[in-house]
Amino acid sequence: MSVDSLRDKWLRSGIGPGDSVLLHSNIGRTVIEQSRQLGCRVTPAEALDSFLEAVGPSGTLILPLFNFDFTKGTPFDITHTPSQMGILTELARIRQGAVRTGHPVYSFVAIGANAPLFIGVNNRSAYSEASPFGLLKTMNGKIAVLDLPDSKSMTFYHHIEEINNVDYRYFKSFTGQYTDFNGVTSEQTYLIFVRDLARGVVSHADPAGELLWNQGLYTGYRPHDDTGLRVINALEMCGFITSLIKSNQARHYLYDIQKESP
Questions:
Q1: Domain residue spans in the chain?
Q2: Could you give phi then psi for residue 16, rounded to 5 degrees?
Q3: What is the pTM of this model?
C-alpha cells in the first residue's frame, strides 16, 4: 500500500481533483490495519498526503480540530491547543501553510488552494452560517467520512439544526481565557447550540444517514466496507435535512427524547 494507492481509493469513493472537502476520519482499518496485513507501513502523515493528493493542487482539505476543554474552564491558545480528533487532524494542524479557524471548541484547519478563505474566520457561534460549515456551502464543498457512523462524525447536522433554529437545542455560552495568534490573552465568550438536556434530548443521527443513502446523496462506501469512505455534497445535504426538519420529522431521524426511568 502506498500514498498513490490510498489516493486512488479516495478518488473512487467520490472525492475529485479540485474539490473542497471536509474530512472526518478513523484511519485505523483502512490505513493502519490494511497496510500491516500487506506487510508495509503507511504513516498517518502519508495518509494525510493521500487525501491532499486526491483533491490536488486546486483543491482544499478541511479537518476538524475540535477540543472540548474550553467548556470545562481550560484556557484556549489558537496556536498551541491541540486537536482531540485524532492524529490525522493534529498533523494537519501543524502542517506548514495550514489555516486554523478561531472557535475555541469547534475549530477547523484548512490546507490547499482555498485555505486563505479561512483566514480570520472566528465565528462566535459554533455551527452558524459564519462558521466553516457555512463557508463550505459557499464553496460548493463536500463532506467525506472514513469508517465512522453519522452519529460519531457528522457535526454538519448541528449546523443545519442551528440555521433552522430547532426547538430541541438552545444557545449556551462559554467564557474563558483565549490566546490569539498575536499571543494576546483575554476573556472571551463563545456559543454552542447544545441539546436541551432538561428535556432528555439525545442525538440520534444514524437514521438520517440511512435516508441520505436511500436518496442517493451519499456516494462511496459504508463504514468498514471496501474503502469505508463516503462523500456527500454539503449543499445537497443541507437542503434535504432542512426539508426533514421543516416537515417535523427531525425526531427519530436527528434526535430522540430519552425519558428517565420512574
A1: 3-257
A2: -135, 160
A3: 0.93
